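From the methods appendix. Each design record in this collection lists the tokenized structure first, followed by the designed amino acid sequence. Records were kept in a plain field format so they could be parsed without special tools. The example shown here is representative of the layout used throughout.

RECORD:
FOLD TOKENS (368 positions):
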């Protein structure tokens, strides 16, 4: 018997996609000589839950459709995942390699090592590395299922240990570890570790798997602890903003350095991601959802992955036109770019989804 469609998870896909676009538009805002710090805080700090949230959602989809109490055939599973993720990854990577080469009049990316390096680490465009990590999660699926069974024996203890162990690993990976090697293969493997080392997102991935396996129990707990969930969200949101403004005020960081420091893998960033997942599930699964929210975020959720794939094209077009017309990008221009990019990407996605264009133009990681 097929399971019910969970609208709250689909809403979260849509919201997270808006957050991903915000982060990328924020990279435009932050290079201004005098960036609007409040706008940067919204685009680059408060949207930081979006990237790890997609690993939560991906794991949820995997385990909701392939629960632990059902047979699991790795070969069949992997074949489906490669068809729905690896093929679009290759197609869009090649598209962006050509796209960037034509714009820059530089085709050196097609030299043998550069070509391999770009595809192996997901460097064709700044957003596409996500699919590389996701593919590694898929390849390692035989590890995650027994790990979840083990963690299910004492979930509160095991997830607490995993959270803090992941926090320590991410802290050292983000701020402490350095490697300087004359071997370009070793140096690249270290420099681009965030593009393939799944350990950076292991906690949120496993929490997504646990939520899928015990969805009713998780939502029942959220219903009973709504106040705690809201307080937790308020505290982590305040913590993210305090850390962002704090490193600039007390440590003298510029806004760009602050954003590179207070990210989703920082200790407060991990707590903020967790709180946001619980907060969204509480308000969108355990509370009445307004009809307009259902309509808007259902559409965004349905179109989220084509939007993800294509939105850099529209962002580069907007910034290119602004440069051509010598427009100094103030806050109002940045907001306009965000709206234009989102609208154009959504329109493209509508065409792809509703008119059933070739599957490589889209992507599905819902676990279907």
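DESIGN:
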């Amino acid at each position: 018997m097929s399971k019910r469609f969970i609208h709250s998870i689909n809403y979260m896909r849509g919201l997270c996609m808006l957050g991903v676009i915000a982060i990328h538009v924020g990279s435009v805002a932050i290079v201004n000589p005098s960036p609007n710090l409040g706008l940067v805080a919204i685009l680059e700090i408060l949207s930081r839950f979006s990237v790890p949230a997609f690993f939560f959602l991906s794991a949820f989809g995997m385990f909701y459709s392939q629960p632990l109490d059902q047979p699991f055939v790795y070969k069949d599973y992997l074949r489906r995942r490669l068809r729905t993720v690896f093929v679009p990854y290759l197609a869009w990577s090649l598209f962006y390699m050509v796209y960037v080469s034509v714009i820059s009049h530089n085709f050196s990316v097609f030299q043998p090592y550069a070509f391999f390096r770009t595809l192996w680490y997901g460097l064709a465009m700044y957003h596409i590395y996500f699919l590389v990590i996701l593919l590694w999660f898929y390849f390692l699926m035989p590890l995650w299922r027994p790990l979840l069974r083990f963690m299910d024996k004492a979930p509160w203890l095991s997830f607490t240990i995993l959270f803090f162990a992941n926090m320590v690993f991410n802290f050292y990976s983000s701020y402490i570890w350095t490697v300087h090697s004359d071997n370009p293969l070793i140096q690249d493997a270290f420099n681009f570790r965030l593009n393939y080392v799944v350990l950076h997102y292991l906690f949120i991935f496993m929490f997504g798997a646990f939520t899928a396996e015990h969805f009713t129990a998780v939502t029942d707990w959220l219903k009973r602890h709504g106040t705690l969930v809201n307080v937790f969200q308020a505290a982590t949101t305040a913590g993210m903003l305090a850390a962002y403004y704090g490193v600039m005020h007390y440590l003298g960081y510029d806004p760009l350095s602050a954003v590179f420091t207070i990210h989703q893998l920082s200790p407060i960033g991990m707590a903020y991601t967790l709180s946001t997942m619980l907060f969204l599930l509480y308000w969108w699964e355990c509370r009445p959802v307004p009809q307009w929210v259902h309509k808007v975020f259902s559409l965004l959720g349905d179109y989220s992955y084509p939007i993800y794939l294509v939105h850099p094209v529209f962002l580069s077009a907007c910034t290119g036109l602004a440069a051509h017309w010598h427009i100094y990008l103030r806050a109002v221009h940045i907001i306009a770019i965000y709206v234009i990019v989102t609208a154009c990407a959504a329109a493209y996605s509508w065409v792809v989804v509703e008119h059933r264009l070739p599957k490589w133009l889209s992507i599905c990681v819902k676990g279907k």
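APPENDIX NOTE: The chain has one domain: 7-361.
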